[in-house]
Amino acid sequence: MIVVDDLRIRFGDHDVVRGVRFSVEAGGSFGIVGESGSGKTTVMRALAGLNDAWDGYLQVAGVPLGRGRNADLHRRVQMVFQDPYGSLHPRQTVDRALSEPLLVQGIGDVDRRIRKMLSDVALPAAARFRYPHQLSGGQRQRVAIARALISEPSVLLLDEPTSALDVSVQAEILNLLTDLRAERQLTYLMVSHNLAVVAHLCATVGVMSNGEMVEILSTEDLRAGRTQQPQTARLRALSLEMN
Question: What pLDDT is stored for residue 51 in this prediction?
């Protein structure tokens, strides 16, 4: 479903991403981890069409990506951002946030789709006409997930989707995302600095350092400490200390 080959991204004189390669099968889940500034979010933004300054090869669902993106691709690939408050318009109700993608993409049956989507992300029907400030952080992130999924994409890009939430709420959102992937046969690409969060959701993990993907390994090998690169071992050790 996703192919990234020899991806290179440069900002001014600085190489931010250097020759990154990985692929994600349809219905699979792939996590990218690394310290701040490692280039992980920059890779995701290129796939999302939020950064056109890249070289290499990107492909989604068998379609090579160019600098411009058509409406079909925007419907097929959606993104959930880190901050559930900042990603929602403070003066728009949940109803407006969910109906807008449908109207922009010419998808009908708006009322039924919104009611079903609220149910799918475990939000009460009463939340539909509330504003972001009237919701908890976890509820806001559920709205953001609902907005991403309401146009029925096949790929979901997750940019640290739980890092702004309390630990107890993080588990709820991760379990929700796990259930939604199974129910909708979604393909996930997730970026995080938290190995435990990535291991919960993703079967395979790519470790980035200084713009390079230095190691790709299974979550099982990561948990068992079967790592090949010192950067991976260091991230794992830090994660264990934090937990």
Answer: 85
| pTM of the predicted protein model | 0.91
Q: Give the CATH architecture of domain 2-242.
A: 3-Layer(aba) Sandwich (3.40)
191 DSSP 8-state letter: E
Q: What is the pLDDT of residues 142-161, one digit of tens each?
A: 999 999 999 999 999 999 98
Q: Give me the residue spans of the domains in the chain.
A: 2-242
Both tokens assigned to 19: 């020759």
Write b or e for each residue in 78-113: b if 16 or more Cβ atoms lie within 10 A of its Cβ, otherwise e: bbbbbbbeebbeeeebbbebbbebbeeeeeeeeeeb
In whole angstroms, what is the distance from residue 184 CA to residue 194 CA?
25
Task: Tell me which DSSP letter residue 60 carries.
Answer: E
Q: Distance (Å, rounded) from C-alpha 178 to C-alpha 219? A: 15
Which structure tokens are listed for 43?
């890779």
Task: Read off the amino acid at residue 19.
Answer: G
Q: DSSP string of 155-186?
A: EEEEESTTTTS-HHHHHHHHHHHHHHHHHHT-
